[in-house]
Write a structure and sequence with these properties.
The complex is a heterotrimer of chains A (328), B (288) and C (285).
Chain A (H helix, E strand, L loop, with lengths): L5 E11 L8 E9 L3 E5 L6 H7 L9 E8 L2 E2 L5 H11 E4 L3 H4 L6 H11 L4 H15 L16 H12 L6 E5 L7 H18 L2 E6 L2 H7 L2 E6 L2 E7 H6 L4 H9 L38 H5 L30
Parallel strand pairs in A: 3-8, 3-9, 6-7, 7-8
Antiparallel strand pairs in A: 1-2, 1-4, 4-5, 9-10
Helix pairs in contact in A: 4-5, 4-6, 5-6, 6-7
Chain B lengths: L11 E10 L2 E11 L4 E5 L6 H9 L6 E6 L2 E2 L8 H10 E4 L13 H12 L5 H11 L16 H14 L4 E5 L7 H18 L2 E6 L2 H7 L2 E6 L2 E7 H6 L4 H8 L8 H14 L13
Parallel strand pairs in B: 3-8, 3-9, 6-7, 7-8
Antiparallel strand pairs in B: 1-2, 1-4, 4-5, 9-10
Chain C lengths: L19 H24 L31 H37 L1 H16 L2 H12 L4 H27 L2 H8 L4 H37 L11 H7 L1 H5 L4 H32 L1
Bound molecules: adenosine-5'-diphosphate (ADP), iron/sulfur cluster (SF4) and magnesium ion.
Chain lengths: 328, 288, 285
């Protein structure tokens, strides 16, 4: 895929916060193409949400950033505040895990949907309402919700509103931060079906953060696996989950309880992810990795062919439950 | 629907529980039994009445009608609030809550919290030794005793919550979405820990969850709740392999997997909602 | 924490207590006033009740650094010693209303039902009754002295604390850690005393700090009216009263200084209390 068709292009992104011993994000490389769904998976605290927020220029105060984050070819990190506002209003938008926390409970949903259009002067009130109706139909809601308040709707319906609102200005890039985690499994299916549909109709590129590997495998074209602020493996969803090459990816898959598997002990990953307050040397996964060797503790593995592991070439990762890996 | 297989005297027997909030039938004629040392899963979407059932069982809520009996003793009747009665009820059933960030007093160090419980229930035993034993049992070092909840990770806090429940030495442990807030790698550690504890102590689990993978992994039998009522029950293996009720099938189809078609699941869901007997719609936002 | 907000008077609502400089200044001032009150007898240059008629209504001089009042009493000494009475009254009021208010509020919030209704209604009733009037009534009934107005104003301030404690209890009750203690078999009393009250205490104490300022103002008003503080005891409020004539005669210092002290102390307590409450609220998030 050529650079021109990337709606999001993150290059060597590094982000440090005060009072931490290692970078929160450490050399993240990631791309999202037009009408592509890319999943970003990893445990909580690994830096998924931070990566997502940087794409909108939403940096924590006192953050020291390096590298580049280009949305539609333009570097977000060097944008003026005015340009950033335009970006958030038009080119890229975001949906969050908890729609109820992201929507003002005291305003009608119609106000919420057309708010940014009215403030940013974009389409003008009339056209905004027309677009809102159109999008509501696209997300499977009726106009009736325009005059309703958030508390009158269920979580799943509110998440649709969030999605409609994110699409109001026809963004090329949609950033989704665990958009279905707070929802029921059956509702999750609806929202995912909706997102896939919208990708097809509007050609939106999506970066989809989740900790659910099964979901990532089922919906995305490509997957990036993040650990301790670094991308440890990436590749097409099918091959990445079918034949993981990084020990962390394999371990994550093995620790996920699966429907099809016989009920037996899970292969849990020992220990915990590294703390931000402790410096890291060598491979961040070394302390928990079953394949770690001397070199892993001393030398940081650089990404090569989509895997950052010293032993990627030699390891044939023993798969605990070969048959039931998700295949996309 | 066949009754769950059960020995002569189950450790937990729930019969005919009902609870309404206004027009919402939160729990609608729920009955099941749990045998000693077994693990029973309760699955269903949020708002299906799982949490309310759990809260009635542990005594945080009163049922409108119905009974909960542990080892043959009814615990719904008694409204006496004497100390002995309180302690006896606590030793029947303990509970682990969903959010380990909220279920521990933020001001109390782990060791103190455990000692508090031990002093209440076993004033004559050696508290310090038992605290160490409990911490060890849930895979925490003795150093954890001095830590405040905020100094621990989510998984560690959930271990503390489990240790605190075990301190009472209950016959039944109710776990309400106890691993839902944890990352998969930590979740696997806790699920393994729970399996070990059951093996060692013969405690019974009532395992409430919406994650069918988890159900598969830690329960022997399962009941499926939908709109406050049980719509299917049976051995976990059978229910997951050959679901009989359309709602159970929908739940199974909703799990993302190879060849998954979310569009079809969404259509099935709408179909099920429209064919089902109209019941007062319950807003699904009141998450527990 | 949104349900529970501190009660404060409208005029002070607009002070931005989040600013650190202001908070630190106010904290330092509060600390200073307290220390001065504690060691006042050793600080005061003269006997506060010694009348030096020759110095009456003179401008500041080496003998009387802040001048003297109409009876020739040293203003500086009276201010220093006056801080004791001026702080002691509000201290009693705050201590009394906090303890009682927490008991009432927590009981109402925890038990609910008719107990809640009864307690909430009666504190609303108290709230409707002006505190100063109540205090004047008590003084009229029980005579002079600090005790009667302190008891009356404690009752008047009780609803502010109990209302806050009740709403904090209601929101804290929702938290699973309290449910966990109930499931463990702890009694309601021990849960409240050992877990609930310590967890809501920071906000309640912040409210009490704010109340301290207002109580000081009310006590000063009473002693200005000649009620409450026994005659001869130096007190800021009664100093203003005594200074009225001096004011008319163009020597305002003995009346203006206690005024300024009262206002600044009240504002300082307010700012400190609000800042604490803010800090707790931010930590909760
Ligand atoms: N205290 C309450 N007041 C009003 N409605 C409630 C209350 N508790 C539960 N409900 C309602 O009862 C139903 C069942 O809820 P719950 O037991 O929490 O289900 P689950 O645990 O399966 O998500 C829901 O519709 C919920 O809104
Ligand atoms: S580099 Fe070493 S420690 Fe890191 S994942 Fe590879 S084998 Fe494991
Ligand atoms: Mg629940």
């Amino acid at each position: 895929m050529s650079a021109a068709t990337h709606v999001l292009e993150i290059d060597g992104l590094t982000l440090r916060l005060p009072r931490t011993a290692r970078p929160v994000l450490d050399g993240v490389d990631l791309t999202v193409g037009a009408s592509e769904i890319v999943a970003l998976v990893g445990e909580s605290g690994s830096g998924k949400s931070m990566t997502l927020r940087t794409a909108l220029g939403l940096l924590p105060r006192q953050a020291a950033v390096g590298g580049s984050v280009r949305v539609a070819g333009e570097d977000v990190l060097t944008m003026t505040p005015a340009r950033l506002r335009d970006l958030r209003a038009g080119t890229a938008s975001m949906i969050f895990q908890d729609p109820r926390a992201a929507i003002n409970p005291l305003r009608r949903l119609g106000d919420f949907l057309t708010e940014s259009a009215r403030i940013n002067g974009g389409a003008g009130g009339e056209r905004a309402v027309v677009r809102a109706r159109h999008l509501l139909a696209a997300v499977g809601l009726t106009d009736r919700v325009l005059s309703q308040y958030p508390h009158e709707l269920s979580g799943g319906m509110l998440q649709r509103i969030m999605i409609a609102s994110a699409l109001m200005n026809d963004p090329g890039l949609l950033l989704c931060d665990e958009p279905t985690t707070a929802l029921d499994v059956t509702t999750q299916a609806e929202i995912v079906a909706l997102l896939a549909d919208l990708r097809n109709t509007f050609g939106t590129g999506m970066l989809f953060v989740t900790h659910d590997l099964g979901l990532a495998a089922a919906i995305s074209d490509r997957v990036f696996v993040m650990y301790a602020g670094r991308i440890v493996e990436h590749g097409p969803a099918g091959s990445l989950f079918g034949a993981p090459r990084h020990p962390y990816t394999a371990a994550l898959l093995d620790s996920t309880p699966r429907l099809e598997a016989p009920s037996e002990r899970l292969a849990a990953i020992p220990g915990q992810p590294p703390d931000l307050r402790a410096p890291l040397s060598g491979c961040p996964f070394a302390a928990r990795c079953a394949y770690a060797i001397e070199r892993c503790r001393a030398e940081r593995p650089e990404p090569e062919n989509g895997v950052a592991c010293h032993r990627a070439g030699e390891l044939v990762l023993a798969t605990v439950r070969e048959g039931d890996r998700p295949r996309a | 629907m066949h009754e769950m297989t059960g020995g002569a005297d189950p450790v937990l027997r729930v019969s005919g529980l009902r609870k309404t909030y206004g027009v919402v039938r939160a729990v609608d004629d729920v009955s099941f039994t749990l045998d000693k040392g077994r693990s029973l899963g309760v699955v269903g979407e949020s708002g299906s009445g799982k949490t309310t059932t759990a809260r009635i069982i542990v005594g945080l809520e009163h049922a409108d009608t119905g009974q909960v009996a542990v080892a043959g003793r009814d615990r719904t009747e008694s409204r006496r609030h004497g100390r002995a009665e309180r302690l006896r009820r606590a030793r029947e059933v303990q509970m682990v809550f969903q959010d380990p960030f909220l279920s521990l007093d933020p001001r109390i160090p782990v060791g103190t919290a455990l000692r508090e419980t031990l002093r209440l229930h076993f004033p004559r035993r050696d508290g310090a030794a038992r605290v160490a034993e409990l911490l060890d049992q849930v895979g925490l070092g003795e150093r954890a005793a001095a830590a405040l909840p905020r100094e621990l990770s989510g998984g560690q806090r959930q271990r503390v919550a489990i240790a605190r429940a075990l301190a009472v030495e209950p016959a039944v442990l109710v776990l309400d979405e106890a691993v839902a807030a944890l990352d998969v790698s930590v979740q696997a550690q806790i699920l393994n820990l729970l399996a070990d504890i059951r093996e060692q102590t013969g405690i019974g689990y009532l395992f409430i969850t919406h994650d069918l993978g988890v159900v598969r992994c830690v329960t022997d039998d399962v009941v499926v709740m939908w709109r406050g009522a049980i719509v299917e029950r049976g051995p976990t293996e059978r229910v997951l392999a050959a679901p009989e009720h359309p709602y159970t099938r929908l739940l199974l189809d909703s799990v993302p997997r190879p060849g998954w078609d979310p569009g079809r699941v969404a259509a099935d869901r709408r179909a099920l909602a429209s064919t089902a007997a109209p019941s007062p719609s319950s807003p699904d936002h009141r998450k527990s | 924490m949104t349900a529970a907000a501190l009660t404060r008077r409208p005029g002070l609502k607009h002070i931005r207590t989040r600013r650190n400089g202001l908070y630190l200044t106010c904290l330092a001032f509060v600390g200073l006033v307290v220390v001065v009150a504690l060691i006042a007898p050793w600080l005061a240059p003269a006997d506060p009740n010694a009348t030096d008629l020759g110095a009456a209504l003179t401008d500041p001089s080496p003998g009387h650094p802040l001048g003297a009042d109409i009876a020739g009493r040293d203003t500086l000494s009276r201010l220093l010693l006056g801080s004791r009475t001026s702080l002691l009254g509000p201290l009693g009021i705050v201590a009394f209303s906090t303890v009682l208010g927490v008991v009432v509020g927590v009981t109402a919030g925890w038990r609910g039902g008719w107990i809640d209704t009864a307690l909430s209604r009666s504190s609303e009733l108290l709230l409707a009754f002006p505190g100063l009037l109540l205090a004047i009534l008590f003084v009229a009934l029980y005579g002079e002295g600090l005790l009667a107005p302190v008891v009356a104003l404690s009752l008047a301030y009780l609803p502010f604390v109990s209302r806050l404690a009740r709403s904090l209890t209601l929101s804290e009750r929702q938290r699973p850690y309290l449910a966990a203690y109930r499931v463990q078999g702890f009694s309601g009393l021990s849960i409240c005393v050992r877990h609930l009250i310590p967890n809501i205490a920071p906000v309640v104490l912040a409210q009490s700090t704010v109340n301290f300022g207002y109580a000081l103002l009310d006590m000063a008003a009473l002693s200005f009216l000649g009620l409450g503080v026994p005659p001869l005891t130096p007190d800021w409020g009664s100093m203003i009263n005594a200074g009225q004539t001096a004011l008319l005669q163009g020597k305002p210092l003995s009346a203006v200084l206690p005024c300024v002290l009262i206002v600044v102390t009240v504002v300082a307590f307010n700012v400190v209390g609000e800042h604490w409450a803010d800090r707790v609220a931010r930590r909760e998030r």
